[in-house]
Predict the structure.
Amino acid sequence: MRSPLPTLPGRDRYYLLDGLRGFAAIAVGLLHYRWTLMPGGYLAVDLFFMLSGFVLARSYQDALTSGLAAAAFLRKRLVRLYPLYLAGTLGGALLAARQFRHSIDPAALQDFAMGFGFNLAMLPNPSAPVLFPFNPASWSLFYELLANAVLALVLVRLSRRRLVLACLVFGAALVTAALIMSHSAAGRAVYSSHVGVVAMGVEWQDWPLALLRTLFSFTVGVTLATLHTRDARKLTNWAALPIAVMIGCFLVQIAFSARIGFDLVFVMLVAPLLLVAGIRLQPGPRLAAICAVLGELSYAFYALHLPILQLFKQLAERTGLSEIPLAPLYLATVLGLSWLATRYYDVPLRRWLIGRLEGKKEFART
């Protein structure tokens, strides 16, 4: 009997996880568009890391423990991440290059070329405070690759007990670092831009907190993957509740003194519970279809939304329109371009790259 749920080739049927990822990506886009629309949207990144740890552990743990080399695994991850990363970087670079329309300052051109060269290689710019100035959201992709390397080299070889211990160690370190940063000038500067300390990661100076947020959330995802032995999921109308809870948390706007505690509770308690709900619950056909589509577009949305956002900011300035009325058009544009980029650019290019690098038989197994 054919399942009433939509199917996507090569995808595990965790539709609620797709929905969490998709709505979280939209939350990030709204945060960057206007922070009052989604004040806590930066917490979506921690959930992304957690979801990634779970999915990659479920997909690759057996292969990594039975002979798949770490280099081959990381090559697969680069093929997955790079095409859309490249599109976002090129878009941001084209917008940044407009500074040379009227005159070319040699020093500025040299900085531009250096940053562009490093970013093309998916490496942070060593000469600027922001790791990826052409598309700042790419900082999380860089740390994602670091976490992928830790998965291949270390985490897949740990027992469940040691994975739990690693979560506790990373969690304690994250709390300590967040509290220290909350009392620093850098932490208060971050909050002055209307985000909490846990949002840090865009700049070089944020690296301790950024690394710990990545390792903690990613390791929690890996740990839950090893603890999850029963694959059956309960079909229920309550499957929409975790998405609503997540969005509700992102909408909370509170003072700096309470923000650090709220953020840490979300990262260390709420996000893991959302992941567990996504593992155990299955939405009905209609919601599953929405979740599947948004999950499929989530990475493209995240990778492309900032260059598109810059264009909308300029449109608002030139037309004199308020940003709020343009928000639905902004979301529709990013979603539409994400669909086009995924279908006609990302998937074909990845198919070609895998075919070139690993052969058609290997592609059939990915």
In short: The CA atoms of residues 66 and 179 lie 41 Å apart. The chain is about 70% helix and 0% strand.
